[in-house]
Amino acid sequence: MRKLCPNYDIPDGLDTVLEVPIPEEMFVSNKPTHHRSWQNMKSWMNMKQSPDQRHSMVAVFGGRNTEIQLLLGVIGAPLIPLPINHNADTHSITKNIKDQPIEASMAKYIVKQYIAAVGGEKALGAVDSMYAMGKVRMAASEFSSGEGSMNNKIVKARNLRHGDGEVGGFVLWQKRPELWCLELVVSGCKISAGSDGKVAWRQTPWHPSHASRGPPRPLRRFLQGLDPRSTANLFANSVCIGEKPINDEDCFILKLEAEPPTLRARSSSNVEIIRHTVWGCFSQRTGLLIQLEDSHLLRINSPGSDGVFWETTMESLIQDYRTVDGVNIAHAGKTCVSLFRFGENSESHSRTRMEEVWTIEEVDFNIKGLSTDCFLPPGDLKKEEEGFGIVPSNVRLPFKLRNDQPNRVKGSKVVAIDDDERDDDESSSDDDDLF
Questions:
Q1: Residue 36 clears pLDDT 60, i.e. is over it
Q2: Is there a contact between 388 and 210 (Cβ–Cβ < 8 Å)?
Q3: How far is CA 49 from CA 23, 56, 187, 226, 231, in A?
Q4: How far apart are the first and last CA of the chain?
C-alpha cells in the first residue's frame, strides 16, 4: 500500500501524503507501453475501463459509477444490528452460566473459549484503541430478475476470481467500541463513516452527511476479526443453535436476534425493519470466529400498495489470523452479499449478488494522541429530526435507470438499501439520470 504519492510533474516537488493509502498495483503498469505509474493512478481515480467491461456494466447496472455506488452503499460501511455494551467485562460473560438455559450456557462457554483463543482477558483488556489499514477488491457479480429471481434473466457481471472488480484501500480507527472512524476509497470514490458514541454517521460523494436512526452501533468490519473484545461482548447474549462444517472445519453456530425495541428505533414512517439476525460460526478446533453472517428484512411502504420487501444477507469468511501484541487478529477474508427484492408481482422480483475480498496490511494498538476529537461527526451532519429521514420526492436513488433495457437494473429493483439512513421513494420516473 502506498501512503505517499510522488510528484511526477515536478521532479523536485514534495510527495503528497494520501489520506487513504492506495494499493501498490495502481502504481504498476501492466501495458507494453509502460505508461508512467502516475498515469495508472490517475486512471484508477478517474475510473477508466475497457470497452468490454464498460459494456457489461452498462448492460446490467447502467454504468460503472452505478455499480460503485451500489457496492459502497451495501458493502462499504454496514453496521451491526444492535449496540454493544462497551462497559461489559469479559469475565462477567461466564457468570452464573449454570443458571441459564442450555442453549445460552453453551453459547457463553463457546464465547469464553473464543476469548482464550484470541489472546485472553488480560491481552484484550490492555487494548484501549486501535488502527488498521488494508486493501479491498469488490464487484457486483450477478443480477437475476423475474419469478424466483434465480432461473430467469440471469446476467453475470464480474468475478473476483478472474481479477475483476474495483480496487481500493481503507483506514480504520477505534477508541473503545463506541468511538470509531472509517475512510474507504474505491476507484476514486470515497466513503467516510464513524461514531462519536452518541450518533453513527455516514458521508458519500452522492449523499450529504447523515446520521443513522436509532442508537449508535459498531461497524461490521470490526467484527470481521479485528475487534475480538466487541465480538465476545456481542455474542455474550446469543444462543447456540447447532453445528456445521465450514471449509472442512467443524464449527459451533451462535445466533443473536435484534430485539423489537431496537428494530422500532431504526424504523420510520416509510421503512419498517422486520428482523435483523446475526450468526457467528466458531471453530471447534481453534475456538476462533471463522464466519460471520447477518441478514435483515425490511419493508418499504408506499401509498396504494402493500409495500416492497428487501432482504439483505451478508456472509463473511474470516481467515489468516496472526498475533499482534498478544491478540489474534484476522488479516484476510471474503464477504458475499445477496440483495433480494420481492413483493408486488413476480416479475418485479430481483436478486443481486456482490463480493468483496480484503486483506489487512497494518494493525496497531493503543495509538498515542488518538483523542475523542478525532471522532467528531461532520459539521454539516443532518439528523432525522432536522430533516433527514424523509426524502423529498425529487430525490432519487443513486442509479442510472432506463426502462427501454429489459436486463438493466431499475431503481425499484436494485438499490443499496441502507435502512438506517433514508426512506425510499419509488414513485418517480425510471428515466431520470441520477448523477
A1: no
A2: yes
A3: 17, 11, 11, 33, 39
A4: 31
Per-residue pLDDT tens for 13-25? 787 777 777 777 6
- Tell me the H-state helices in 184-310: 228-234, 260-266
Phi and psi at 412, nearest 5°, equal -80, 0
- Give the Cα separation of 195 and 197 in Å (integer): 5
Least confident of 27-31, 90-94, 271-275: 27-31
- Which set of grid coordinates corresponds to residue 99? 443458571
- Grouping H, G, I as helix, E, B as strand and the rest as coil, residue 239 is strand
Going from the C-alpha of 374 to that of each of 180, 181, 196, 205, 377, the distances in angstroms are 9, 8, 9, 21, 9
Reduce the DSSP state of residue 308 to 3 states and report it.
Answer: strand
Residue 289 CA to residue 318 CA, distance in Å, equals 7
Sign of CA dihedral 411, 416, 419, 423: negative
Strand partners, 376: none
The H or E element spanning position 40 is: helix 37-45
Find the length of the chain.
435
What are the beta bridge partners of residue 280? Answer: 254, 292
Inter-residue contact 278 to 84 (CB < 8 Å) = no
The beta strand positions in 215-248, using DSSP E, are 239-246
Q: What is the pTM of this model?
A: 0.78
Q: Are 280 and 257 in contact (CB under 8 A)?
A: no
Contact between residue 306 and residue 68 where contact means Cβ atoms under 8 Å apart: no
